[in-house]
Design goal:
Blueprint lengths: L14 H33 L4 H25 L26
Helix pairs in contact: 1-2
Length: about 100
């Protein structure tokens, strides 16, 4: 469908679609950072750099953050796959099975 003057629309300016796209982008970035923090925490635990109390605190914090991400996805009607941007030949932005176990 063309706009007046023969131009085709390039941006979907429907406020609902824009909001959903923005929420998806923000949650994708937060999820990427969460997974990176989790990997770094696992490396530090494996290296023995943390006390038992620090490991416990870190584990509780990461679990709380993951739970909050679940709540946010549910609130906005998104799935984990919705946050995993396809980068074409490079694959997906987020690994399919992030590490667990802190």
């Amino acid at each position: 469908m063309s706009e007046p003057g023969g131009l085709t629309p390039r941006i979907d300016s429907d406020p609902e679609n824009v909001e959903r796209g923005l929420v998806t982008l923000v949650l994708t970035i937060v999820e990427l950072l969460r997974q990176l923090m989790e990997r770094q925490a696992l490396r530090r635990v494996d290296a023995g750099d943390l006390t038992d109390a620090q490991v416990e605190r870190l584990g509780a914090t990461l679990m709380a953050l993951e739970q909050r991400m679940v709540e946010l996805r549910e609130h906005f009607g998104l799935t984990v796959d919705d946050l995993n941007i396809d980068l074409g030949p490079l694959g997906t932005l987020l690994p399919r099975d992030p590490p667990r176990g802190v």
